[in-house]
Amino acid sequence: MPFLLPRPWRWAYPRLQRWLPARHGQPLLAGLDRLASLFHALYHNDNYDPASNGEAWLLRRLAACHPTGRPSRVFDVGANRGDYTRLALQASPDGEVWAFEPVPAVFAQLQAAHGGDPRVHLLPLALAAHDGPLTLYADPRRSGHTTAVAGVQPGVHGLEEPECFERPAQRLDSFCAAAGITAIDLLKLDVEGYEQQVLAGAPQLLAAGAIACIQLEYGRANLFSRTFIHDYLRLHGAAYRLGKLYPRGVLWFERYSSELDDLIGPNLVLALRSRPDLIAALSLGQQP
Q1: In whole angstroms, what separates CA 42 from the centre of its chain?
Q2: Gap between the terminal Cα atoms of the chain
Q3: What does the alpha-carbon distance between residue 158 and residue 149 come to, in Å, rounded to a whole number?
Q4: How wide is the angle at C-alpha 106 spanned by C-alphas 104 and 108, nearest 5°?
Q5: Cis peptide upstream of residue 266 (ω within 30 degrees of 0)
Q6: Mean pLDDT score of the chain, rounded to an integer?
Q7: Which of 282, 173, 219, 216 lies closest to 46 in space, CA to CA?
Q8: DSSP labels for 152-204?
Q9: How far apart are CA 253 and CA 255, in angstroms?
Q10: Under a CB-based contact definition with an 8 Å cutoff, are residues 174 and 202 in contact?
């Protein structure tokens, strides 16, 4: 029966093209449109719960396939109150996490959660494309919305007058050189559209293949940072495979299509091309 569908669809499609737009705004059709959009977003994992959207899965998979049996070093950039750091420690009890959170009030909550844990290094600073002060825009009601990208607060979160202040920032290259860090197993970036600017501060680490895997947030904030999947492929595609994170694996992008830049988040993953074992372990449908 499926082989009979193309011919009726070729007949129906041009008629729907004329009929549906002419009835734009009718309540029943508008409801169907919203339902279809919701289904599309859910099907493509528009889910910001790390326990179920693939983030926890990724940590467990990285722990399982690390040469030493665990990812020895996770960088949690945009650590907020420490929920992701907690997931990383659960996945790798013997690993270490470097947690970066520049907002003082939020950093205090991060300290309260993980300050006594020798496995966690807490840093009250931002990572950026430069060394020096960085302007941040914050919502005092929602600690996870802080960004260095102007326009995100009103355009994405509806906050017309965000708090604006400066905090110290470093390039990732500068920080790691000073700390004597030569390798990162997972770099997690959740900085509300500023992710590529953090990567722009790590040209030496990236060129050396010192960062095995990168998880970065992708969504409507990218409209304001003007950084899209096309840019990540252009800038990093030679050294890294890029794909979207789903609850049980990464769907790798074979080539760029404008359809990929749909702004449906929450996370993209980059894995070193020089680590085919890692790419295979993270591939959607290949692992339980």
Answers
A1: 17
A2: 33
A3: 14
A4: 70
A5: yes
A6: 93
A7: 219
A8: HHHHHH--SS-EEEEEEEE-HHHHHHHHT---EEEEEE-STT-HHHHHHT-HH
A9: 6
A10: no
- CB-based contact 204:231 (threshold 8 Å): no
| Residue-wise pLDDT tens digits, 21-44 | 999 999 999 999 999 999 999 999
170 beta partners: 127
| Residue 139: strand pairing partners | 142
Collect all residues with Cβ–Cβ distance below 8 Å to 60 and sequence separation of at least 6: 91
- List domains and CATH numbers for the chain: 2-42 (no CATH), 49-282 (3.40.50.150)
Strands of the sheet containing 267-272, edge to edge, are 120-123, 96-100, 73-77, 184-189, 211-217, 267-272, 240-246, 249-252
* Helix spans in the chain (H): 6-22, 27-43, 55-65, 83-91, 104-114, 152-157, 172-179, 195-200, 203-207, 222-225, 229-236, 276-282
> Beta-carbon neighbour count of residue 32 at 10 Å?
12
191, two tokens? 């900085």
pLDDT tens per residue across span 176-198: 999 999 999 999 999 999 999 99
The burial class, CB within 10 Å (0-12 / 13-18 / 19+), for 111 is middle
Q: Count of residues for the chain?
A: 288
Position 245, amino acid? L
Which amino acid, one-letter code, is at 80? N
- Residue with tokens 């919502």, as numbered in its chain: 139
CB 148 within 8 A of CB 190: no
